[in-house]
Amino acid sequence: MKVEVIRAWPRRHETVRVELPEGARVADAVKASGFSDLSQETAYAIFGATAASDTPLKEGDRVELLRPLQIDPKEARRRRARKPL
To answer: Taking the model in full, what pTM does it have?
Structure first.
């Protein structure tokens, strides 16, 4: 089966398509992606839905490598609201 593994930063992203055997899991896709330095990624998602490393994959899934938030979204909104127009 073919799946896509993606990781993103502000204003750029990397994506890799990998071929995996039936019954493969998220961890298998991440390993097959060949991405180095995965120390910043803290979680996984499949099409935006949180997934564990042992979640089974289906043909055409997109595995997303997630990083921790740099700032709380509510705090970011407050800061933007305080800025003068």
So the answer is: 0.76
In the DSSP assignment, the letter for residue 39 is T
Reported as a single tens digit per residue, the pLDDT across 35-78 is 877 776 778 999 999 999 999 999 999 999 988 877 888 988 99
CA proximity to 43, closest of 17, 69, 18:
69
**Phi, psi angles (nearest 5°) of residue 73:** -55, -35
Token pair of 74, please?
């509510």
Helix and strand numbers (H, E) in the chain are 2, 5
- In the chain, what are the domains? 2-82 (3.10.20.30)
Maximum Cα–Cα distance for the chain, whole Å? 55
* Token reading at 28: 């298998």
